[in-house]
Write a structure and sequence with these properties.
The complex is a heterodimer of chains A (about 240) and B (about 270). With about 240 residues, chain A is α/β, with parallel strands linked by helices. Chain A has 12 helices and 8 strands. In chain A, strand 7 (about 175-185), helix 10 and strand 8 (about 200-205) form a beta-alpha-beta unit. In chain A, helix 1 (about 15-25) crosses helix 12. The two termini of chain A are about 15 Å apart. The N and C termini of chain B lie far apart (about 35 Å). The chains are: A alpha/beta (about 240), B alpha/beta (about 270). Chains A and B meet through helix 3, helix 8, helix 9 and helix 11 of A and helix 5 and helix 7 of B.
Chain lengths: ~240, ~270
């Protein structure tokens, strides 16, 4: 099963991806958290720390394009170049931009290519996408089983959310679920529902614990009073794979 | 040609992690600069809407038509502007003016496949590179993260300002972005603009971890979201507020960076 987590920058994609991956792991399922951002920081939200997050080498950086396509299996790559995160999650980074002018971003191994051309077998892959919709628009048709469109109740994020839903529909990316994050009032939830006109929706109220986790670069699982953020995502994990 | 001003022209790009506040600050910066009487173009290379909101423009898309370019000669760019195109006239035709006189210039949003915006992108880049340097101030906004910033999308900029929230993710992103100065096309000077800081400790932390001066600090303000919801610019919505004051303070500080000798960089 392939799950894509998409949305505008800053809405909470990475935090949602990390909690979903760990919740799936806690249910005893094999899970890979795939950081599809060329500025990877999913490791922080998973709880592996900033040093390890900056150390992990991107799969693209380790193998040439030819080798990646022919000589290795995906689990070989992720087991060699990824790292272990808590709750049995295996973390992999697709492509890390380390320096200016890193080469053509549309050639070679990319998140869109890896997700489009790879069958991940029994594993559940949670792909944390780059902000915006570039990668998502380039994933092949019907290659994603579940798309989580993360939004917050701001016009700009809802604008991106709307475009994401259109793309998911157009490219037949399975089931799409809106994750309304940082919702502080019924009026804000109303705004989300009115803008997106989509019934399959999960609401996450504004969470102080999440703000604190982000400031400190740790997993929200490691903080007290984190239920506001975690519980809705845990429920989603059970619904999807439980 | 109209009279040329000898005043320094600012050519700045705002970069940073997605959601850090680049577009909002860039938009207000451009408007304030234009109010001082300068010619300002606000460049938007983010295929997602952002800067248009910050400028209070109620537009969804303003694509550059594909037929503005022709195939380029071998060994050069794939697409070039039609011969005889005047970059300034092109800008005036395909940009949108704000009430303050800022020219908002983008190449269009992603509608269909990715490939569909390649021609407008080429036209946009070439016009930007050929704008008369003595006339125009440039305030650019790139898409969040590293992809555009590390791939030469800010070639026009002398100065790049990294907008950073005081979070570990913000710091990690900024550390990578600081490498832009190593590129041949990179900005000469980079500085930090701290956004949504809660205390002076945050500023100290940023300077210590990044080793680059913080040139300004922009406080969190509810006026920004209110303005976004009302689809007006924060500058119009709350002209006397702390947010506008903070961005306004940035302008003389950025101008001052131009006094730094040309061989000195960060």
């Amino acid at each position: 099963m392939k799950i894509a987590v998409v949305g505008k920058g800053g809405v909470g994609k990475t935090s949602v991806s990390a909690v979903l991956a760990r919740s799936i792991g806690r249910l005893g399922k094999p899970v890979v958290a795939l950081d599809c951002d060329t500025n990877p920081n999913l490791g922080l939200s998973l709880g592996v720390g900033d040093i390890e997050t900056q150390r992990i080498i991107g799969i693209r950086q380790q193998v040439s394009d030819r080798e990646a396509e022919h000589a290795h299996t995906w689990d070989d790559l992720i087991s060699r170049f990824g790292t272990d995160a808590p709750d049995g999650v295996r973390l992999g980074i697709v492509n890390r931009i380390e320096n200016p002018e890193p080469g053509c971003p549309c050639c070679g191994l990319s998140a869109e290519r890896l997700l489009s051309q790879t069958n991940f077998g029994e594993s559940i892959v949670v792909g944390d996408f780059e902000a915006g919709l570039g990668i998502f628009s380039r994933v092949g048709e019907s290659q994603i089983d579940i798309t989580l469109v993360v939004v917050e109740p701001t016009p700009r994020s809802l604008d991106v959310g709307m475009r994401a839903l259109e793309l998911a529909r157009k490219n037949k990316q399975g089931r799409f679920i809106v994750v309304a994050n940082k919702v502080s009032s019924p009026a804000e939830l109303g705004l989300v529902k009115q803008s997106l006109a989509h019934d399959d929706i999960i609401v996450i109220p504004f969470s102080e614990a999440l703000v604190d986790a982000d400031r400190r670069g740790i997993s929200v699982f490691d903080l007290k009073d984190n239920e506001t953020f975690i519980t809705p995502i845990e429920r989603l994990a059970v619904e999807l794979v439980g | 040609m109209a009279e040329k001003s000898t005043k320094t022209k600012i050519r700045v790009a705002f970069v940073g992690k997605g959601g850090a506040g680049k577009s909002t600050i860039a938009g207000t910066f451009a408007q304030l600069l234009a109010r001082s009487g300068a010619k300002v173009v606000a460049l938007d290379s983010d295929p997602m809407p952002g800067l248009s909101y910050a400028l209070g423009l109620d537009i969804d898309d303003m694509p550059i038509p594909e037929d503005t370019v022709i195939e380029g000669p071998l060994g050069g760019p794939k697409w070039i502007l039609k011969p005889g195109t005047d970059p300034e006239e092109f800008l005036m035709q395909y940009s949108i003016p704000t009430d303050d006189g800022v020219r908002y210039f983008q190449f269009g949003n992603v509608q269909g496949p990715w490939i569909s915006i390649i021609k407008p992108q080429h036209a946009w880049s070439e016009v930007v590179s050929k704008l008369p340097q003595l006339d125009w101030n440039i305030v650019g906004d790139v898409s969040g993260g590293l992809r555009q910033a590390m791939n030469g999308w800010t070639k026009y900029a002398d100065v790049a300002l990294i907008v950073v929230e005081p979070t570990v993710k913000g710091v990690i992103t900024a550390k990578q972005l600081l490498k832009m100065t190593k590129a041949s096309w990179g900005p000469r000077i980079m500085r930090i603009v701290a956004n949504k800081v809660q205390s002076d400790d945050d500023l100290e932390m940023l300077e210590k971890k990044l080793g680059v001066p913080v040139i300004g600090s922009v406080p969190w303000s509810p006026a920004i979201l209110e303005a976004e919801r009302a689809r007006v610019s924060p500058l119009v919505h709350d002209p006397q507020g702390t947010y506008v004051e903070a961005v306004s303070n940035l302008i003389p500080r950025v101008l001052k960076l131009y006094d730094i000798p040309i061989d000195q960089t960060y």
